[in-house]
Amino acid sequence: MAGASDKARFYLEQSVPELHELERKKIFTKDEITSIAKKRSDFEHILNARGSKPADYARYAEYEMNLESLRKKRVHRMGVKANVHTGQRRIFFILDRGTRKFHGDLGLWMQAIEYARKEKAHKKLARVFTSVLRMHPTKPELWIYAARYSTDVQADITTARSYMQRGLRFCKTSKLLWLEYVKLEMIYIAKIAARQKILGLDGSRPEKQAQSTTDESESDTIALPDVTAEDVDPGLESSLEEVAVQNLTSTPVLTGAIPIAIFDATTKQFPNNSALGKRFFDMFAEFDRAPCQAKILQHVLASLLKSAPTALETRICEFQQPLVGLEATSAAYPTALGQSLASVKASMQQIPHLRAKLATAALLTLVPLMRTEGLDVAIEKVMAASLRKFVAALQPQNQSSTLEQSGDRLADVVDLLLAQGRREDARHLTAYGLKHWKSDRLLQASAAVGPL
């Protein structure tokens, strides 16, 4: 016990100069300094005694964080100069001691990571990442966190890829890590495509328009012509931008080669897993701005049709693929909608036992169309007829259904929409259903979704 007291006294003595400075500059009063010293003494004796727990280190670090926050506010209000790193070093020192003693406690590690990120101590955070990943290499969430930090804060895709690739060596069976890796690449592609568009390197740069001179006589200023780099060197813009466009469009990044390679590696790790393939498909479908989206989706669908052609997930992807990335009011939408409806109809005929599940998936996909303003009249008619067919298909095959039974089945779809957080879609589907099918369950669903 004497050794514990000696350790505690040693650590406390190191903070004496800091406390003297705080008192001398009147940042804290003498009574407050006494209270701080007593609180630190209590914590140090607890930490250095036998039986200390990770929560003790966490509470000590939290106390010091609150104290440092108060110190900063008073320094700012009083306008005095003070050492800005002393408190930060003390907090890191406490957390380092805790993670060394309890290296298996992820809570302490995350507290250290979050504090370093909050303080923008990037070098320290890099060292913490190195240590925690060395201690917990089989935790996929840590690799994902480190990779996201590298891209979101540091804008360093190379380091982020390194984290993901190293993580996959230890966590090959983590589906989440594979999905997050390909999502990381898709986010990067979307960012590059957006920057390309902003810079006018996507081929959509508007042509220069001649300035109108109708108001020149009324203006009291002299309009001077714009002088650009192209005017000084006519070949400059065309040569540099053409090279830039060619380089950007031909790189493996924008062509989707990297996400496709990751997806192919995933299918080898998890063969014949149509549910995982559907998760990849849904994730790729979210990136409308990625120029390679259609190519990647087609590749995923082809892979699913080859490995599991009769799986429910495969048929849902086949039905949804033509509609991805299209606005309901675009000229190409009617044709795409026709392809999708034909696809789901064929699937229902080919795989009768999936008929009800396919109809449910079709309803979940098409319900947002009901909320689209300015929809073509012909599409509205097709939608109305299709919805009635899909509701009828919810009933088991070769069984006739009453209006009340159809309403009950539709209420099940409303429950699915609510479970997915799609309250507006649920509200519109309920309103549509009450016009055609009456049932107690549908009325209950109407009460659950709120006023129509």
Can you characterise this structure?
- It is built from 23 helices and no strands.
- It has a domain at 2-136.
- Helix 17 runs parallel beside helix 19 (355-366).
- Helix content is 71%, strand content 0%.
Largest sheet: none
Number of helices: 23
Low-confidence stretches: 207-214, 221-232
**SSE order, one letter for each helix or strand:** HHHHHHHHHHHHHHHHHHHHHHH
Query: What's the N-to-C terminus distance?
Result: 71 Å
User: How much of the sequence is in beta strands?
Assistant: under 5%
Specify the structural class: mainly alpha
What is the residue-averaged pLDDT? 85
**Gross geometry:** elongated
Task: Give the gist of this structure.
This protein is mainly α and 452 residues long. The chain is built from 23 helices and no strands.
Features:
452 residues, 23 helices, U3 small nucleolar RNA-associated protein 6 N-terminal domain-containing protein, snoRNA binding
Write the layout of secondary structure elements.
Elements: H1 2-14, H2 16-24, H3 30-48, H4 54-78, H5 86-101, H6 106-118, H7 122-135, H8 140-152, H9 157-170, H10 175-198, H11 229-232, H12 234-250, H13 252-255, H14 257-269, H15 274-285, H16 293-307, H17 312-320, H18 333-350, H19 355-366, H20 377-393, H21 403-419, H22 423-436, H23 440-449
